[in-house]
Design brief:
With about 400 residues, the protein is of the alpha+beta class. It folds into 3 domains: about 140 residues, 2-Layer Sandwich (PX Domain); about 55 residues, SH3 type barrels; about 90 residues, Roll (SH3 type barrels), CATH 2.30.30. The protein is about 25% helix and about 20% strand. It contains 10 helices and 14 strands. The strands form 3 sheets. It has a 5-stranded antiparallel beta sheet with strand order 8-7-6-5-9, with no helix packed on it. The longest helix is centred in the C-terminal third of the chain and has 38 residues.
Length: about 400
Amino acid sequence: MGDVFIRHIELLGYEKRFFPSQHYVYMFLVKWNDLSEKVVYRRFTEIYEFHKALKEMFPIESGDINVENRIIPHLPAPKWFDGQRSTQNRQGTLTEYCYTLVNLPHKISRCLHVVNFFKVRHDDMNPVTDSQTKKPEVFLLPKDAKKNPTDITGPIVLQTYRAIADYEKSSTSEMALKAGDMVDVVEKSESGWWFCQVKNKRGWVPAAYLEPMDGPDESEEQEPNYAGEQYIVQKSYTAMEEDELTLKEGDTIEVIHKLLDGWWVIRKDETTGYYPSMYLQKAGEANTSVKSELRNRIAPPRRSTIRNAKSIHKQSRKLISQETYRRNSKKYIQSQRNMKENLQNKAKVLIEKNEQEENKPKAQPAVPPRPSKDLILNRCTESTRRKIL
């Protein structure tokens, strides 16, 4: 079987194609043991034929001999006519099928039949198209599709971005760009690496090299949150620029601004600066193998480090200066301290007031005056009157 095997298969969605005739293909993101990631396209009829052959290769595990021994997942047969509705409804089943397939014993999940079926083909990199027909329609699977795959409605139009400068790829999973290239963004990762596609190529691209066609991308960035979110540093990094921070693994920091290029503004004590988001993990969040493998990659380049960047927009990209981050962050910290001190002072005053009330001597009740002889004779009983006579 060799050393090549698949770590993970993720269903991204499906495409509706119109050449040579209308048909549907599923999009799979296949992650290999060498950390490369490839997108492949397969018709459901192909997947079902692959499934039947797999069952023949492993009759015991497919339940042909004893149903109780079956571990290979079920897969419904294709319909006589597969339309868009059946293609869409089948996505939940395929998601579960791929998850179970990869987690089967190695003799099945890493056999040549599985490896070869999901290897990149020529048609995956260069799909057959006709310039006279319309562009394929892409239907992406939502993030929470495992819970409710029927939420998919479409077509989902991918955002088109433009490259602002040349980019040379540094690994096979990346995609090279030339200034002015138009790409469709399939997935935006918080790490600053975006999965993009054009007609004949697909791969990961640094978000810093891309700008949307309809306006500068600062509108997609949320406002800074000076209250901060607590994160733990999972990988050390030495600052390369003056506005970056040098941190060690295990340090606790606060994220105050999450930027799309994968460089977040963080706060350590009263110091602020940029740090690669792919090396951070939210406090209390469980670590995953995918995140661990991601951290083995290099951090994406920052927008400020790109030379010869040319934007098509008249409005320049709004940037918040590091001085503004520092000043507002210190202002927030000081306001929190003042608020804390005020609460402590109020609590102290209240305690002191309560202590004073407790230590204050209590007033003694007044002794009533002795009644007169006439009053006793007029109002008291016979026995009481006898005592004063």
